[in-house]
Amino acid sequence: MLNSITHKDIIEFNKTMSLLLISKISITQALEILIEQIKNTNFQQIVKKVLKDVTRGKTLSNSFSKYPKLFPPIYIANIKIGEETGNIARVVSEYTSYLEKNQNLIRDLKKAARYPLLVLLVSMAVITFMVFFLIPTFQNLFSSTKVSLPFVTQLIIDSSRFIENQFIWLILIFGALASIIFKSKDSKTFKNIIDKLLLRTPLVSKLIIKNLMARFALSMSILLKSRITLLEALKIARNTSSNHIFKKEVDIVIKRIIKGESLSANTSTSILFDKTFSRLLFAGEQTAELDKVFGMISDYYGKEFEYQLDVITSLIEPILILVIGVIVAIILIAMYLPMFDLINYFGV
């Protein structure tokens, strides 16, 4: 039911809600209007239940908290502050901006993997064609003669024959592995392994860390703007990330702050937070404007992430094309090498 509700639906909901509340329309009226405008029937049913709760006297934050997948703790915490200050409209408006910025960061990260994946799929299709159609054709030609084949040619033909003969088993093994990965993808152990691998992979690790920093700082900025305590903000911002290694690092920071240490001092010793992050935080602590500083940090790392993304994409594209080109060239050369002996064999 909830899976059919997209990020776009949630952003549109909050955007319209903030406009209605800014226009001095009551919460109940705003929800009634939203129910009429929402196109997703599942989302519409949830908002109807929220409206029913609100008309019975429950707070908006309490009603929303029943649906944590749609309205996460960061949203509920901000709504509660909005209820206490009587300024829910501003809180919802700021949260909408947060959602849009966060969505852009996630979209850019996905975009980084899209083109290399496409190139890999095309290359796999080309190599599959060569293995099942091109190489067997040459194999039949070579087997009908007594020409001795070069080592590379023989190796490629043997590999092609093995793949062709064991194709069903290979598909079954691949399917079983894919099934195990799919079933394990939500387990903590599997996620920890993937997170560790990604954070140890050259180039990719830098990209992921920049993205994590930008999103974490964005969460901290919106929470601190709403006058939520630093400790509470850290606990909520921690849960906005799905990266388990990052969560553990934030947990360490939280424990040290409880002991009385400063935020900037804690992040300076972390394996994920760099010196720039810590220095900017130190400046924010000195001026008592951490919310603004976190906003600046988010913008800074967001731009750094985009730059790093462009650099990595520009490197990966030609490298992938070169590697695939070399593989195809080796196969073609290996197939055509024996042709010189065939010419002599037929006495041409």
- Count of alpha/pi helices: 16
Q: How many individual β-strands?
A: 0
Radius of gyration from the CA trace?
28 Å
Strand residue content: under 5%
| Separation of the first and last Cα atoms | 72 Å
CATH class of the domain at 204-308: Mainly Alpha
Molecular shape = elongated
Mean of the pLDDT scores?
Answer: 84
| Largest pleated sheet | none
Indicate the percent of residues in helices.
over 70%
Which regions contain 5 or more consecutive residues with pLDDT less than 50? none
Structural class: mainly alpha
CATH superfamily grouping of the domain at 204-308: Type II secretion system (T2SS), domain F
Name the CATH architecture of the domain at 204-308: Up-down Bundle
CATH-defined topology of the domain at 204-308: Receptor-associated Protein
SSE string? HHHHHHHHHHHHHHHH
